[in-house]
């Protein structure tokens, strides 16, 4: 097999392992609860008695898992279509061994559904997406009909709500995402959900700690909170793939909007450079989020973690003019309001412009 065929096979096997992880969600989640029940069974008799009500709770959690699992076959039905059947196994060949990936890959998607497409997520969206949308609106025409030829890119789009909101305001907007779990579910929400509050899920059913009452773990949400189907004239799209591999053309975008994204690179400098390159002269980069540096401390990853001050210096050296910069924006990410543990980021928000005139020394790099 040549390299290209090897690459395609690897990609297809990975895609199949994503589907397999989704398919195993129900069994693996229930097995986990069964294991907990066995733990209780192994305890002294009086402890078992004292934990009787907790055992009942575990039983109810199983029902929530079942309810989450109902969504999966509906979503997977359409998964092959998303990539024009590129990953379909038309030779009928069985991949030797399709393993499953970590269970939390599916659990994260349930939480992201809360953030992007439920009423309960409205507060997080207000904190995180509104400042970006308001900045975009300030910079482009007031007339919604005059916005269509401004093209805006949202890399690391998750389940696509920010990109969708930008497109709904008349812009031509493209979300980009490389996580197949997100892509499979966002395709379903964006193209196939027909009704508001069509589905009910339990996003935190797999988080077992920090509740005042059993109900906290069973916090449910309905989605989608609005009917997201793009209209025929809407200029909204999603692309699949690594931002650094998909976007290589210079001077293409009027605006790049990043939310909780730039810290997803092992080398944030590469993201900043690429955003600079793909923006048109005069183009805008609007960013909001923390500096969690997702690759930090991961074995064999060449992760760099500059502080915000250092990052600002880098951004300016690359050529951007920083027009706005705020720190301390209180922002949450996929938080269960009923948990005793509440993470809140003091995020940074900044707006940078690629100058119209590129200095001669920059054009040589
Ligand atoms: C922390 S999440 C933020 C999602 C969304 N922007 C939000 O605020 O809810 C970061 C997203 O970026 C995606 N991502 C990370 N690195 C990426 C890359 N190189 N190319 C495309 N997507 C990427 C991840 O899969 C994830 O969905």
TrEMBL record:
Its EC number is 2.1.1.22. The keyword S-adenosyl-L-methionine applies. One of its GO terms (molecular function) is carnosine N-methyltransferase activity. It comes from the Eukaryota. Keywords: Methyltransferase, S-adenosyl-L-methionine, Transferase. InterPro entries: CARME, SAM-dependent_MTases_sf. One of its GO terms (cellular component) is nucleus. Belongs to the carnosine N-methyltransferase family. This is carnosine N-methyltransferase. It comes from Brassicogethes aeneus (Rape pollen beetle).
